[in-house]
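Entry:
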Amino acid sequence: MTKDERHKLIIDTLMMHESIQVSDLSLLLDVSAVTIRKDLTELEKLNKLYRSHGRAILINPYINNRSVNEKEKLARSEKEHIGRMAASLITKDDSIIIASGTTVLAFARCIRPIHRLTVISASIQVSETLAANESIDVVQLGGSLRTSSLSVVGKYAESPLAEFSCSKLFLGVDGIDLDFGITTTDIREADLNKIMMHTAQKTIVLADSSKFRRRGFSKIANMDEIDLIITDEGISDKIANRIEELGIELTVVPVTQKQ
């Protein structure tokens, strides 16, 4: 078997299983572990896979911080459909918390309140979007402005939450790793999100399917602290089944038009 043939088989195997141990690849291809490690190094340099703890992973699970303008261009249709589904969960005279991110911003644009709605918001853009609706009372948290997400963080954002009790938290995340939990790229945002979770009776994660098998720098919570995940049809059956096995409610939204 040539090197190119080995590389193709490695990628094909990862497409099926998402990750695989070096020792298993060595047995599968009938070559030494040294040869496999050299193959994986070459494929990693080509951004075809990611190496971690003696195994190969189809994608790099670690996420870099990006600006809100850059993020908003990604998965627009998926976020819009997720936002519509999330908006349907708002009830009469509800009180909710909306965190930060482009997926929750898409959600905010879909909100049509039944009678009155009270929203506690960490996102400047979410507050601006909702402020035009006279049926929505917006409580904008204070604190330090995080320019990359146009949201607030820090103790002045966290402290008012102790005075509130809300039915639902709508939370955007940068990564969902079913073994590690939900994450963001900013430690201050993770701290604020943790307090938001304690303030709300139910935590609803809004995440397009690209967020799965990814990790940001800062952990927000374990998977068993999440009540509901709303995502799009790009999620794999394997991940969807695992989420349901964990006892987490999962809503998969069909996306008829992708941009």
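The first strand starts at residue 19 and ends at 21.
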